[in-house]
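Morning run. Coffee first, then this:
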Amino acid sequence: MKRRKTTSPVFQGRRLFLMLGLLFIIGILMLRAVWLEVFQQSMLQERADARQTSIVTVPAYRGMITDRNGEPMAVSSPVESLWCNPSRLLETRAQLRDQYDLASNVEGKSSASEVETLAGHRYLQLEDGLAKIEEALEMEPGALIDKLEEAKDKKFMYLGRQLPPELAEKILALELPGVSSTREYRRFYPLAETAGHVIGMTNIDGQGIEGIEKARDDLLAGRNGRKRVVRDGRRRIVEDIESIEDMVPGKDLQLSIDKRIQYLGYKALKTQVYKLKAKAGSLVVMDAHNGEILAMANIPSFNPNNRKELEPYRIRNRAVTDEFEPGSTLKPFTVAAALEARVIGPDVEIDTSPGHLNFGKYVVRDPGNYGSITLSRLLAKSSNVGASRIALMMDPRDHWMFLSRVGLGHAPNAGFAAEASGQLSNYTEWGKVDRASHGYGYGLSASLLQLAHAYTPFAANGVLMPATIYRLQDEPRGQQVMSPETASAVLQMMEAVVQSTGTGSRAMIDGYRIAGKTGTAFKYINGKYSRDRYMTNFIGIAPASRPRLVVAVQIDEPKIEDSGGRAAAPVFAKVMSESLRLLDIPPDNLPELKQVENDRSAAGGAT
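And here it is:
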């Protein structure tokens, strides 16, 4: 006979208790779900949106800078900037390291591979990722951790700025906690050091800090936009929700620079500066018809694409910012001012005997006694005595007003961020020595850009056009600063400088008539003029019969040649000849042209 199985009352009670407890918990959870779903839905939705959505900046695309022919001189390319949340990254690393240490101490693990397959695997993966970031960013081993420790209380820190997109993607693929990237733009300069001083550069945040980049930052920069986006758990953007503020791209800017002339000008200047072991050099090429600057170069220069080797003395645009006493390059203005004041005529001769002028302790000297000389010979031989005598004939006010009209003492306002205005004291402060020294270019100062600009009226029938670094769309309005007769007469006189007997014979160019003036000025240092440190210059115009271009060259402290005719004139000849060829300006000094002119003269005389 089988025995019946009976269920213990205790067991029955426990089962009932567990069932009731389970039902109670299920009820609580259901009530909680109803509460959250019905009464807390809005609050939870807001919290979820706050975690998943964020507002990000849409960087503006910086406008392109081009030369007069549309060739790029500054462009922006997309890059990525890596950043992280230091506190989150360090906290995650500490937690994973603790798990790794705990797993490593568990008994019964027979190999390291078993340990890595446990919790410590993620820690090793993180450490490997940090090491790869250091390698990619060219950091010393351990430097990244030190950097993170220094910023451990912060929520944001850049790991690297303006990285190539492929490098940023490689690092992001490591999926490290708290590491993300932001799209930015990096500036690239195709001409590199050739036009570094003109174009300038931007800083790491895309703001112009030198050259045209700084002067027209408001136009080039544009305006950043903002948008709301959805991010995933790794803070990656997965969807754009709405645009809060539209991004406004920067506007393009066209310069008056001719890329071809800029390159050949820089190359010729650099070659001569190194050849003469000079301290520095500058060059300016201008179109006398409209005041446009076709080229501007300086040595030493800098490469705006390479920020690691920037030195302050290389960044300065010497042609625009540096002031110097122009020396003999000012003598054509002395002659022109006297002609305008009608104290002399173009056919007058100036007595320079006995080759010096005494003003007490101050003596003006020529290399020799030139005697009575014409104005052309005065410029060709660069007579200080002759220029002083002419200056002393003029009323100081007339002389001062003429120099002021051609731009001396005033910033050219050509479009650069910082332009020197030079020094030209008021005529009421001039003594007899000042009047004489101003005649041959001492006692006042100017920049090379100012001097080049001041020479343009000689090539434009006495009209001074506004100087500009920007490509002009309309014909500018100039100022008549001297009569066409004076401009033509002085231009013709300056042709004598570039003859075999003149100081600028090395500036001659086959097939072209050249007018110009050499200049050598000793530097004023510690209250007196140096005997062995000087500035050499040559400023010339071509073609002399149909003037178009003005080229100004400066060589600072050459160690081999000691005058503007020997140091600066060869650079002028090289740059001017190539510029005339590039601009397709025909020769005006060929034998066949001379024959045609002679035939016309003969025919005119017969009639």
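Residues 107-113 have pLDDT under 50 and may be disordered. Good start to the day.
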